[in-house]
Amino acid sequence: MTKALMFQGTGSDVGKTVLVAGFCRLAANRGLVVRPFKPQNMSNNAAVADDGGEIGRAQWLQALACRQPSSVHMNPVLLKPQSETGSQVIVQGRVHGQARGRDYQRLKPELMAAVMDSFTRVSAGADLVLVEGAGSPAEINLRAGDIANMGFATRARVPVVLVGDIDRGGVIASLVGTHTILPDEDRAMVAAYLINKFRGDVTLFDAGITAIGRFTGWPCLGVIPWLKDAARLPAEDSVALERLARGEARALKVAVPMLGRIANFDDFDPLKAEPEVDLVFVRPGERLPADAALVVLPGSKSTISDLEDFRAQGWDRDLAAHHRRGGRIIGICGGFQMLGRRVTDPLGIEGRRSEIEGLGLLDMETEMAPEKTVRNVRARHARSGAALDGYEIHLGVTRGPDCARPFAVINDHPDGAISPDGRVCGTYLHGLFGSDAYRASLLAEFGILAGLADYRGAVDTALDSIAEDLDRLVGFEAIVAAAASIA
User: Fold this and answer.
1) Is the pLDDT of residue 84 over 80?
2) In order of start, what are the domains of the chain with their CATH numbers?
3) Residue 39: helix, strand or coil by DSSP?
4) Pairing outcome for strands 86-91 and 94-100
5) For residue 421, how many other CB atoms are within 10 A of its CB?
6) DSSP assignment of 311-366, as one string?
7) Of the candidates 64, 28, 38, the residue with the CA atom closest to the CA atom of residue 119
8) Which ranges carry the CobB/CobQ-like glutamine amidotransferase domain (predicted)?
C-alpha cells in the first residue's frame, strides 16, 4: 500500500518546497518510487508537465527530484493571480476559468473531487507520496471546504509534519498557536514538526523543543539549518526576489524590472548562477540602472496591466534611454508582447476589453486570443544556431515586420522577433537561459565566458546535496515512520 506524508507550514515561505524536494530525492536515492503532490498551488511560476498542461514549477522541480516524469496530477489545482482579487483557475492542467475570492470558495467542493482523483492517480504504483500544503492550516477562516491543507489531509487520511520557520522569529508561538487553534480532528493529523532555517548552535534550541513538546505533545523530527544548496534551486514565490543580493561587482549587469504580475521569474536563475553576471531585479520606485548592458522584460500574467504599471514607474523612459545608449533588450512572453507597437484584448481575455500602445521597440502587434498555448519545445536560436530547450505558456498572437527576423525556430516554425539593428529581440520561450549553449552564446556577445557549463546538472547536484543533509539531520527512517503514523 502506498504511504503518504504531508508537509504543512506555520505560514507561507517556511521552506516546504525545498524540504519536500529534498526528501523526494532522499527517497529516490534509497530506491523508492516516490512522487510529489500539491493539492492547490497559487503561483504565476508555472511549468508544462510531461503529460501536457500546467503545474506549479515547484512540483515540476519535485518530480525532477523524484526522477519521475512530471504530471498535471501532481498539482491538480493551480491558481494564477491576475489581479489583487482574482485568479485564473487551472484544474488538472487545463484552464477551468476565472474566479474571485468568494467565487473560488464556492468552487471548492467541485475541486476536491479533482484533487482526490489526481491523488489516486499519483499514488498508483508509488511506494511513497510526499505532499506539500499551502499557506497555513491555522487559517481557520478558510477551513470550510479547504482542499490545500487539513481538508485534504483528513479526507485522504495523510499524516502531517508541521514546518516552522525560526528565521522569522516567533517559531514557538507559531507552532503552539497552531496547535491551540486547530480543531481536534485536524490536530490529530499532526505526526510531528520540524524547525527550519536555524542559524548557529542547534543545542541552544533544546529548551525550545522541550517547551513545544510540553504545550503540544508533538515530537520534533529535527532542527534544520539554512541549507546552502537551497539557493541553487529555482525559487517558487516572488517574495524570494526581495532577498536577492544586489550590486556585486561583476562583468555584466543584467536588469529585470519587477512587474506587479511577474510570471516565471525562475527564467533568470541560470543567469543568477553565472559568476560574471550581476542580476538586478529593479523594484517599483527604482530606476532601471544606467550601467546595465542588458535589460530583460520578464513574463507577465497580465500584459496590459503590467505595461500600464511599467509606464507609471517611468521605466518606459529608462528603457528608451538604455536603447539610445546602445543597450541590449530581450523580452520574454508578456515582456516580448510589450516591446511591440500595440497590444489589444478585444475579448477581455485578461479581464477587460482594452488596448494599449506598446513600447515601440519592435515593429509588431499582439492580439490576445482565447486559445492558450501550453507546450514543451525544442528549438534553435536563429542567430547562433544554439539549441534551446524551453516551454511556452501564453495567450495571444503576434505579427509584424520584425517577426520576419525570428528569435528562434521551433520545428521549422518561427518564434519571436528581432529589430533591424539586432539590439532588441523577444520570444515566447520560457526557460531559454537554462539552455547552456544559448546562454554561453549570449554571454559571448558581451565578451564573457560562461562559467556554468551544465545548469540542469548543477540543480541535480544540489538536490543530492540537500538529500544528504536531510538524511543526516532528520533521517530517512523518521520520514517513513511518520508516513505510517496514521492507519
Assistant:
1) no
2) 3-232+460-483 (3.40.50.300), 252-447 (3.40.50.880)
3) coil
4) antiparallel
5) 8
6) HHTTHHHHHHHHHHTT-EEEEETHHHHHTSSEEEETT-TTSS-EEEE---SSS-EE
7) 38
8) 253-437
Any idea what the Cα angle at residue 345 is, between residues 342 and 347, rounded to 5°? 160
Instruction: Judge contact between 250 and 276, C-beta under 8 A.
Output: yes
- 452: which 3 cell numbers? 556554468
Strands 128-132 and 34-37: parallel
* Percent of the chain surpassing pLDDT 70: 96
Mean pLDDT of the chain: 94
Which set of grid coordinates corresponds to residue 26? 532522499
Cβ–Cβ under 8 Å, residues 98 and 82: yes
Select which of 179, 323, 394, 430 is catalytic: 430
State the catalytic residue, choosing from 220, 333, 403, 425. Answer: 333
Q: Look up residue 261 and give its DSSP letter.
A: T
| Amino acid in the structure at residue 112 | M
CA-CA-CA-CA torsion sign (414, 416, 420, 421):
negative
C-alpha 332/C-alpha 390 separation (Å) is 12
Any catalytic annotation for residue 425?
Answer: no
Q: What pLDDT is stored for residue 243 in this prediction?
A: 45
pLDDT per residue as tens digits for the range 384-402:
999 999 999 999 999 999 9
The CA–CA distances, whole Å, from 299 to 261, 267, 280, 437, 473 equal 8, 9, 16, 22, 38
Is the confidence at residue 236, as pLDDT, over 70?
Answer: no
- Give the model's pLDDT for residue 245: 45
* pLDDT value at 422 more than 70: yes
Q: Residue 234: its pLDDT value, please?
A: 86
What's the pLDDT tens digit per position in 123-140? 999 999 999 999 999 998
Q: Is 333 a catalytic residue?
A: yes
